[in-house]
Write a structure and sequence with these properties.
The protein is α+β, with helices and mostly antiparallel strands. The protein has five helices and six strands; from the N terminus they run H-H-E-H-H-E-E-E-E-E-H. The protein has a single domain, classed as Arc Repressor Mutant, subunit A (Orthogonal Bundle). The structure holds zinc ion (3 copies).
């Protein structure tokens, strides 16, 4: 099972919460908010455990944060990140039809030159429009 491999690769114990959260994210394939994840995990797993699991995954380079237009933080799986090398300079796309936020991993955020005195710590670029699935309908 892919979820178990991912946890093992990162030397993370496969707790039921970690397994479930990962399986949900793998199955959906788009960015999910904390409440969307929580809705799908086994009801015996509490909110705090889900929160801690997401924090661990963030630290380990398994998932990254995606800022949505509504100011909601969503989480998406990383592609090829590691604990010490966590880069997310790719574009995110929010579909106004289905409401899904998708990673466009292969599209980098273009370089931006900041005025003197400004240092960048993180870049986010969200494009809104209609996704490929919805366009094909
Ligand atoms: Zn990452
Ligand atoms: Zn769509
Ligand atoms: Zn992403």
């Amino acid at each position: 099972m892919e979820a178990l491999h991912l946890l093992k690769d990162l030397n993370l114990k496969s707790t039921s919460c970690r397994k479930e959260v990962l399986m949900i994210m793998l199955a959906k394939g788009h960015a999910l908010s904390h409440s969307e994840i929580e809705k799908d995990v086994n009801p015996s797993i509490d909110r705090v455990t889900v929160y801690r699991t997401l924090k661990t995954f963030l630290d380990k380079g398994l998932i990254h944060k995606v800022l949505d237009d509504a100011g909601v933080t969503k989480y998406a799986l990383c592609q090829g990140c590691r604990t010490d090398d966590h880069h997310h300079e790719h574009v995110h796309f929010k579909c106004s039809n289905c409401g899904q936020t998708i990673c466009l991993d292969e599209i980098d955020i273009p370089p931006i030159t900041l005025p003197a005195g400004f240092t960048s710590a993180e870049k986010n670029l969200l494009i809104q429009g209609v996704c490929d699935t919805c366009s094909a309908l």
